[in-house]
Design brief:
Elements lengths: L1 E4 L9 E3 L9 H10 L12 E3 L4 E5 L5 E6 L12 H20 L4 E4 L5 H12 L3 E8 L5 H12 L3 E6 L4 H12 L14 H5 L4 E3 L4 H4 L10 H12 L4 H11 L6 H14 L6 H18 L3 H7 L2 E2 L5 H7 L4 H4 L3 H7 L3 H4 L23 H16 L8 H6 L2 H11 L10 H13 L2 H20 L7
Parallel strand pairs: 6-7, 6-9, 7-8, 9-10
Antiparallel strand pairs: 1-4, 2-3, 4-5
Helix pairs in contact: 1-9, 2-3, 3-4, 20-21
């Protein structure tokens, strides 16, 4: 026998076998994946293979079958009666202590963005004195996010590398990507796959800022009724056109009942088990239990293919800290903002979510103060369109649009064995909507179909491990 203790937010999944379950695809679970982009709770592609829940102690026999599972952590909300200044001091000490514990004296590889999570890590690493190599990537022809990241690196005096995400990289990397994430994420989400060869050249430990934006913000409006919490979650997890694709698959496979009812019932059951009255804290707990491990964590294995990874916001100590901090201190990124603004120059750099404003003046990102920027930005996009230059905002635009990309995509969507798994009429319908109606609306469905095609070809005819 062996015992496996899972983290409160696992970095990598731990699997177990289900005794007496058929070794066949779990079509209901795949429908949830089609709607949301991730597998819910313990689901996998297979009926006889499950994922261990976060924050549990699991006993397995020598063949990998689960004998027993007990919880070692339940999310809670017990805010302590402390001042904001005390909370900031505690966060500062805890965050920098966790970063130090995770990277020790090793060189650090720091992906930088225009947001707050990586900027907070930059400040912590600057204070700790580690050797840091930073980098950022931007879409070719898109918003130059690397400019903001480069300014953060300049202030911290970190060496900085800018990397462009090229068009059509996916088709050269798709087989390796499938081997890394086992098709548990649609393939246009992890843009870091485009730069994996570059990442492999770097030496050090990755310090990744994933999930800071969820822990250090409100989870939802407070005082939401139970039914409104369910609606809020559904709106957040269901991707554009995802419900439509899931319903089509559900009906084509002849599954019992209505898919919409099935998804609502499952999420409602999971939400009801979280015994937190405050709706903001409760929704944050739900996301941390079911969204972070099955969506955010899925592609961390790409970083790990290059170098070891560390995630300060995933640390068990950070999760427990969050449970005891008043919601008013977490909402609107208040703690993170105050931490970063302890370094006046980092606070003066543009905050991408509120561009062109920074961490000091972002409350002016509203009419009429932001009108000049919005007008200039619109003129720039329209001018680019007039000369045939598309402003790239999303990875799928670089991987799906254009003749060569289309040829590669269709080779997968209309692969012979895929038609035995997904009815060709469904594939044709959603690709037509993507091409002729709304690329933004239907890009998720097309990317999901691509992912399912690769999974079907690589894994569907093999017995799961």
């Amino acid at each position: 026998m062996k015992e496996i203790r899972t983290s409160i937010i696992p970095v990598f999944p731990s699997f177990y076998k289900v005794r007496n379950a058929p070794s066949e695809p779990d079509l209901k679970a795949i429908c949830v994946f089609a709607a949301t982009g991730f597998f819910l709770d313990q689901d996998t592609y297979w009926k006889d293979k499950k994922v261990m829940r976060p924050g549990t102690i699991n006993t397995l026999d020598n063949d990998g079958f689960l004998i027993n599972s007990t919880s070692r952590f339940e999310w809670y909300y017990q805010p302590r009666g402390i001042s904001f200044e005390q909370a900031l001091a505690e966060f500062t000490s805890l965050f920098e202590h966790i970063v130090k514990d995770q990277v020790q004296d090793s060189p650090v590889i720091l992906p930088l963005s225009g947001g707050l999570d990586s900027r907070s890590q930059a400040l912590a690493l600057l204070r700790l004195g580690n050797e840091v190599l930073s980098y950022s990537y931007s879409f070719s022809g898109g918003y130059p996010e690397s400019k903001i990241a480069g300014k953060v690196a300049e202030v911290c005096q970190f060496p900085f590398k800018e990397i462009q995400i090229p068009a059509g990289y996916l088709w050269q990397e798709i087989d390796e990507l499938a081997e890394i994430n086992k098709c548990y994420s649609e393939f246009t989400h992890p843009r870091q796959m485009a730069v994996l060869p570059e990442l492999k050249k770097l030496q050090g430990i990755f310090s990744l800022g994933h999930w800071g934006d969820v822990l250090f913000d409100k989870g939802a409006p407070e005082n939401l009724a139970e039914k409104d919490q369910l609606s809020y979650l559904l709106k957040g997890v269901v991707k554009k056109s995802g419900m439509e694709l899931a319903v089509s698959l559900w009906e084509a496979w002849g599954l019992e009942g209505r898919y919409e009812d099935y998804l609502k019932d499952r999420i409602s059951t999971l939400l009801s088990a979280i015994k937190i009255e405050n709706s903001s804290a409760r929704i944050r707990a739900f996301k941390s239990m079911y969204w972070a491990p099955r969506w955010t964590s899925t592609n961390l294995a790409i970083f790990a293919r290059a170098n070891p990874v560390s995630l300060p916001y995933y640390d068990d100590r950070m999760c427990k800290f969050i449970c005891e901090i008043p919601e008013a201190f977490l909402a609107n990124r208040r703690l993170q903002l105050s931490y970063i603004k302890q370094h006046k120059d980092l606070g003066k750099i543009t905050w991408e979510a509120h561009k062109p404003f920074n961490l000091h003046n972002y409350p002016f990102n509203r009419v009429p103060y932001n009108l000049p920027y919005r007008v200039i930005s619109k003129v720039q996009r329209e001018s680019a369109a007039l000369i045939g230059k598309k402003y790239i905002q999303r990875n799928w635009e670089l991987q799906f649009l254009g003749n060569k990309n289309e040829e590669n995509l269709l080779n997968y969507l209309y692969e012979d064995s895929f038609s035995e798994f997904i009815p060709p009429a469904i594939v044709k319908e959603f690709y037509k909507k993507f091409k002729e109606q709304d690329g933004v609306q239907f890009s998720h469905s097309v990317s999901t179909l691509l992912t399912l095609s690769v999974w079907n070809k690589k894994f569907n005819h093999a017995t799961p491990n």
